[in-house]
Amino acid sequence: MDSIDDIVTRRQLGDWLRNRFETLGLRVVDIADDLAGVSKATIYNWLKGNNIPKPPKGDAIDRFYLLLSHPDLGLTNGQRLALDQVRTRLTSDTESARPRRPMRGLPADIATFSGRESELRQLDRLLTARRTNTIVVSAVSGIGGVGKTALVVRWAHRKTVLDTFIDGSLYINLHGFGALDPLTDRTALYQLLLKLGVKPGEIPDDTEAMAALYQQTLDDTSLLLILDNAREEAQVRPLLPRNPQCTAIVTSRHRLAGLNVSHDVTHLHLDQLTAKESGALLSKMFIAAGVTASPEETSALAARCAHLPLALRIAAAAYLTSDQPGGVSVIDYARSLGQGDLAELTASATDPTSAVRAVMDSSYRRLSPDLRRALLLLAQHPGADYDVHAAAAIMDLPVRRTAAILTMLHRLSLIETDNGSPDPAGHVTACTTCWSNTPDGIPTAAPKPTKPVNDCGITTCTPRCRRAISAIPSTPTDALDWTPRRFGCHTWSTSPRPPHGWTTTATT
Fold it and tell me: Which pTM does this prediction carry?
């Protein structure tokens, strides 16, 4: 029997392992000598399909998995997981007592998904970590539109993942960012309990009792929980499972570092796609629609969209669904995007969720006045690189206060560093901002720096930069009509300090 998928009895499981031993010329006595607590007789029984143990509970050593993990067997991580899933299924007390009806509450996978192979491999490691009988939580962060949800959904649809979580998967949108108010923990718990099959009349009114029932319901399951679009740590904590057979993945524009206080969390931060990945995504969309585009055309369009998956999809959808009078080429369409603002890009005038602006504004609206002011001022910088001292000059604030603001913007995924560190001295490289008109409701205008540009320590400031800084509005009325435009990448330095610093990222 070559395929693990064909194993349906314990005897067949033993046959598969015995064939492995024979093919590789392994001796049971040699393997047993290497495994603590596993005798020759035990292995011989397993190779016959006899006395195969259930997965242990708590901190007990899983002797069967020790055998699967022995390096001489040469099993891949995927093979070990698949064999362990077969063992779990075949030794389950309830396997024959009830038909398994796994919950499949996942959003649809995207057929034109492209790239992210490294990130998918990182998520695969969660399946291995799950073997340690500890709670596995992963937090996937990144700016809006970078593809957090698409990545997690793509991974959750993989066969290995579907087979691992035998009771299925649950998905909930916590609405941390968007047009709707964020879900309260009470509302989220209620929705999840309904998804778990609890009848409305059995759900208590008290939030703590509701949380206890939620955990109790999860205790007897093997589920993947996707908690999407979280606002903050407090919104997520009551929803994280206590059962180690369940795994939770949280997505958020914030990095949710506070979760590490209460849980062991694996963090995965997404950046924009590479140029190759962006081109592949656009090519898939064009090919599916029967449109031919050269690599040069897709590369130009990808660059105009700052390599953000959301912007790429909206731009391609807008091109493919428009009449394109006169047969406008992809390259001409890409050039036309450069004349306006990326934030204005939309695929449909009747669907606000298909516009870059909707995603961008949902990040902006939840910023404090200080952070709004900082982001608008930094958006005026024509370059892509600055350090904390240059940022302090732009914002006309002390260096220490500026460093604190930059650190907060970094946690909110609005600026990036080249090493992923929030250290204000770090070097930052990313794409330029795409803020357009400031959203309604800005509490205070971003004031002009009180110092002349030449007194701010900026020695390589261009005339364009000076014009940008001088254009910052001084009254709330002017601020609402203020339209910072996208600037091309341009590196500034400050003297005598080296040109290492921060970069505002595309906020879409």
Answer: 0.61
